[in-house]
Design a protein that fits this description.
4 helices
């Protein structure tokens, strides 16, 4: 055993942490039923269910991934709009129309959270 700060609090090395969790009665009953069906006790059932949940849970995407996805979606939209535009339009008019469709009308630009806000 090793001391952590004072004599009244000792932690055993290489031991699993004990954690108290509040569970609604219906969730505790469901866990108990799962434990009984899998021939285990409640503590092991909770541990196994948490491990299963973490194994199958998607990791939250980072802001970098979200930004890359947004840029890819915008590039795809620009490509599709460009393909639909009249080829006889001037390049400036084509770009103006693409920007208006991708960024939206100026009336709504202040409501867009993905665009930089311009100070008035």
């Amino acid at each position: 055993m090793s001391d952590i700060g004072d004599r009244n609090r000792r932690v055993r090395a290489n031991r699993d942490a004990v954690t108290a969790v509040r569970l609604p009665q219906n969730l505790a009953a469901a866990i108990d039923a799962w434990a009984q069906a899998h021939d285990t006790n409640r503590a092991d059932a909770i541990r196994q269910l948490v491990e299963l949940g973490l194994k199958h849970a998607r990791a939250a995407p980072s802001q970098h991934v979200i930004k890359d996805d947004a840029l890819a979606i915008e590039d795809e939209a620009i490509g599709r709009v460009r393909a639909l535009l009249d080829p006889s339009l001037s390049p400036e008019e084509r770009e103006r129309r693409i920007r208006r469709l991708v960024e939206g009308p100026p009336e709504f630009s202040e409501q867009r959270i993905d665009l930089p806000q311009h100070k008035k």
